[in-house]
Backbone:
């Protein structure tokens, strides 16, 4: 067993560096990691000796694959208190990153899913590579996009965010930039040089110049090229109508998307669609995080979250038994938006 910390924390000259250090788990976040990140950023924000922050992930598989879903399942099978406490601290961390007053550079190489999006895509300087896969895969495990994911996806052009959310899809570098999930493209072979240069800057003013020196034009955006059928189909008001439009459109990719949506938790699909629509009308990230916390806690009262994680991560049979099993069977979405039993996050007045 490794004795290294799960988050490597260091200051190099004027730059603080955070390295998520669970490479065997693609740096999935557990509660102590979230607490470490939050406490460190809180200290650095007030430290005049730290002008900027860089966050990356150990290993070569990705920045972060999300939260520790096994622990989430264990909590869901119990009283849910562990999961709700984790989400509270995680969402407060996401809000801190978004309002961080100094340059916050996220190196989004490889897998960047779920909680990985939360610790990167709210930053002020977001770098992707040709290996980047950025997405919110929650409907696959009977959950819903969180960590501000519904804020980001609801504000993506057209209905691209809705497509990604309902299908649990991911965006490569070009699409991530087009969707507003990232800012700069740097080939992975140039990341070591970029990292070294970032850790050598003498002030916050040098961050942008360094990134631009290593950046290249973004690659093709295949998802963006499919906007015609995506916007036409996902603009429907209900999940059932979205599936019907996808099936009736005629584009092969639309038919595939319909089957993908139907394979996800019906409850997750319907709740996620409603969460995205509501997020569009909310004023800012804090308000959306408050909504996400209510929705996340409500998922602890059903069976799909534990069942989805069982099927994908524990038993890996990829054969979840959703309850209810169809979109038509999901009739009470409103309950997911009721106040959380543990109270609000306190991010809004």
Residues:
């Amino acid at each position: 067993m490794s004795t290294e910390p799960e988050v490597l924390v260091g200051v190099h000259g004027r730059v603080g560096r955070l390295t998520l250090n669970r490479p065997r788990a693609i740096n999935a976040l557990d509660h102590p990691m979230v607490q470490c990140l939050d406490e460190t950023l809180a200290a650095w924000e007030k430290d005049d000796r730290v002008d900027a922050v860089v966050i990356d992930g150990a290993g070569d598989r990705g920045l972060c694959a999300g939260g520790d879903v096994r622990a989430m399942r264990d909590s869901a099978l119990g009283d849910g208190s562990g999961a709700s406490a984790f989400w509270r601290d995680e969402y407060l961390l996401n809000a801190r990153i978004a309002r961080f007053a100094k340059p916050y550079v996220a190196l989004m190489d490889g897998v960047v899913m779920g909680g990985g999006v939360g610790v990167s895509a709210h930053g002020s300087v977001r770098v992707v590579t040709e290996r980047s896969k950025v997405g919110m895969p929650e409907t696959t495990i009977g959950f819903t996009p969180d960590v501000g994911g519904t804020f980001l996806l609801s504000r993506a052009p057209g209905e691209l965010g809705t497509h990604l959310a309902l299908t649990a899809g991911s965006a490569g570098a070009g699409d991530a930039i087009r969707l507003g999930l990232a800012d700069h493209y740097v080939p992975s072979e140039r990341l070591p040089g970029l990292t070294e240069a970032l850790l050598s800057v003498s002030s916050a003013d040098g961050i942008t110049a360094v990134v631009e020196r290593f950046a290249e034009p973004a690659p093709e955006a295949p998802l963006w090229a499919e906007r015609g059928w995506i916007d036409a189909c996902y603009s429907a008001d209900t999940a059932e109508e979205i599936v019907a439009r996808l099936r009736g459109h005629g584009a092969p990719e639309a038919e595939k998307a319909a089957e993908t949506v139907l394979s996800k938790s019906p409850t997750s699909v319907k709740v996620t669609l409603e969460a995205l629509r509501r997020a569009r009308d909310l004023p800012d990230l804090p308000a959306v995080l408050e909504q996400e916390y209510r929705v996340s806690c409500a998922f602890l009262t059903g069976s799909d979250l534990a069942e989805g994680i069982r099927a994908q991560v524990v038993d890996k049979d990829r054969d979840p038994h959703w309850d209810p099993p169809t979109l038509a069977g999901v009739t009470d979405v409103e309950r997911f938006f009721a106040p959380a039993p543990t109270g609000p996050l306190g991010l809004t007045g």
The chain is about 45% helix and 10% strand. The CA atoms of residues 84 and 297 lie 6 Å apart.
